[in-house]
Amino acid sequence: MRIFPTNLASSVLPTPIIKYMAHLFFFSPLADQLFQKLLIISDLKNLRKNFYIGEQNKIMEYKVLCEFYEKLEKESSKIEKTKILARLFSQCSSEDLERVVFLVQGIVYPKYTQLELGIATQLMIRAMSRAYGLSEEKIEEEFAKLGDLGLVAEKLSKNKKQSTLFKKVLTVEKVFEDLRKLPLLSGEGSQEKKIMTIYHLLLLSEPKEAKYLVRTILGELRIGVAEGLIRDAIVEAFLPSKSEEAVEAVDYAWSILSDFSLVAKIAKEKGIEGLKSVRIEIGRPIQVMLGEKAESIEEVVNKYGEVAAEWKYDGIRTIIMKKNDKIWLFTRRQEDVTRQFPDLVELCKKGIKAEECVIEGETIAIDPKTNIPMAFQVLSQRIHRKYDIEKMVEKIPIQIHLFDIIYLNGEMLISKPLTERRKILESVVEVIPGKFELAKQLITKDVK
């Protein structure tokens, strides 16, 4: 039962050519010679000035981030880790802040996108073999000794020889943007493109950078940074009062955006009021409100008086987002299951009389022969289905029971009482018996 109370410039060569030659320079001796001849023609001082990272530009070098990684890896105290993270965040520009918040979590996209780096150990070994000029067997041998490809990369990077005219600079932006390409590469030739992307980053990396780069790509960063630490670090870095109000504002923005990189940027630029003004974006999943356990119904009634008791259905928590004729369906774990439930999408289009809204409900499986609800395990067969979806629609039909609405036509409803939200829900839902229904609810003060 559910009970609720941030530019290269040259006067001789076009910028794209300079950029291209700069890129080639790092990887080819021939390009090195050609680039030096071009520099005689170009304004060397200006090129150096524009090509490198200056403090005035507030562009963070990747090695700086790696130094923080090292501190976090060695520190076991959550309080001290929070302080380290806060110092890191406070040193970032707004653009780099977003990237850094992702990278300290070992990710490059919000978790709800389900876009992961997805690089296997053997693919990384192939990239390292090219970058360090060693056989794959030699890389594997070192891996067997050290048990960590990050440490292998660090060791081999110390021995690499590279022609260089300028100081090599690897920025957080470069790493982040290149890593973001990896999950998007697919189809013919994608493996080779992934290897070359990693290869180029490794060539630019100093030993420590190589270690953490490899660990990040493999999903083995292991610096002990969880979401709770990020929340506390945002408060400490940008909301100096560190009050309960500040914590609540960060929590609220996180619950709506599901992306701490955006939360951190808003906190830095707009403070508590900016966080409080965050609004739902249709198509971006939210953090659902979870219930708290109680010892008994009597305990809840005695504490709150009048309560709303609802049936607890054995299905999946479903967040329905609607904007005009487009529907999104998310689970409580923020999985996008819109494609898996075309039947529910059609029910939403027919049964929701609102242009834009966010409604919550519980989707259950129904036995097609008896019309009796089936166990969650049966419905779960549809959640991760990629093929034969229409067959599954026929085999395992569904029914949804709607119990809350938190956004309607531009208005946030979260702060309104549940009873009022229920009335609003009833006004925008057209019940389709046996398919698209409102959750059964009883409002009472009587335990019996």
In summary, what is this structure?
The protein is an alpha+beta fold. It is built from 20 helices and ten strands.
- Pick out the low-confidence regions: 6-56
Structural class of the helix and strand makeup?
Answer: alpha+beta
**First-residue to last-residue Cα separation:** 14 Å
What is the CATH top level name of the domain at 297-444? Answer: Alpha Beta
Features:
7-stranded mixed β-sheet, 448 residues, 3-stranded antiparallel β-sheet, alpha+beta, D-amino Acid Aminotransferase, Chain A, domain 1
Could you walk me through the main structural features you see in this protein, from its secondary elements to its overall organization?
There is one protein chain. This protein has 448 residues and is α+β, with helices and mostly antiparallel strands. Among the domains are: 227-276; 297-444, D-amino Acid Aminotransferase, Chain A, domain 1 (2-Layer Sandwich). Helices cover 50% and strands 12% of the residues. The chain contains 20 helices and ten strands. The protein has helices at residues 15-25, 29-41, 44-51, 62-74, 78-90, 94-103, 121-132, 136-146, 149-159, 172-181, 190-204, 207-218, 227-238, 244-257, 260-276, 297-304, 342-351, 376-383, 389-395, 418-428, and strands spanning 2-3, 307-310, 316-323, 326-331, 356-366, 373-374, 398-408, 411-412, 436-438, 441-444. β5 and β6 (373-374) form a beta hairpin.
